[in-house]
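ENTRY TYPE: protein
CONTENTS: sequence, structure tokens:
***
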Amino acid sequence: MRPLHILLGVLVTLIWGSNFSVIEVGLGSLDPFVLTTLRFVLTAVPLVLFVRRPQGVPLLAMATYGLFFGAGLWGVVNIAMAQGMSPGLSSLVLQFAAFMTVILSALVFREPIRAPQLAGMLLGTAGLAVVIHAAPGAAGVLGTSLILLAALNWSVCNLLVKRFKPPDMLAFVVWTSAFAVPALVVLTLIAKGPAVFTALPATLTWPAVGSVLFQAYVTTIFGYAVWNFLMKTYPASSVAPLSLLVPVSGIATSWLAFGERFPPMLWLGVLLILLGIGVFIVSPLLRKPATI
């Protein structure tokens, strides 16, 4: 990879990791449902008026992706964090989507699970068990379970992308975000009623505005545009290892912004998960054809 492209890839992973702390800022004054809805409104509008609809992807597939990505992934992440799950741990546990994607691909597309991938998943799962045991308060079973649900929904999104292969990922993100908005509005009205929307002028502080703008334009639009360019330009085995920086960035940003501290036992779980993710990501570089 060219040095400039490596720097761009690192920048995106740092942005994606810090995004969890940005979400925490938004949750300081906004309801998690409203925060998610605003993010996808700004991701879709006004670009959906100028970006051509992705060709070759059925509307039902885009609507399904929008529902799982908007409500199922980021809506659930925001709820978990509003319930007390920390930004650092959220960014870490969400990476289990990589493991789940491989498992679902094996079930749906009959893709084999290679031995190094299995080793990475086992290490990560062991680390997750340590994290659940050692994490304080709401960051234990409830918070971790919600983030794992978000990871599962993300893996469904990955399978949809794998199945339909959108030629223009930026257009795909913009249009699926437009489909996510009605679902998010309906879910918000069911869960919280119209009061959360009527109270929006009073709760929309400047930090919350900055949080929404960052999530929509920096994290989603810029981040996915750059990442998709790198994935199209270079082999996946060259780009994918950069994603290991996402939880590192998430933990570091949470420590700097909110003083997040982990007890020693929880650090053991964090290291096991990071090691598992690392083994899992670099496994395509291993040429041994053993399968499970």
Observations:
- Residues 206-233 form the longest helix (28 residues).
- Residues 237 and 284 are 6 Å apart (CA to CA).
- The mean pLDDT is 86.
- The radius of gyration is 19 Å.
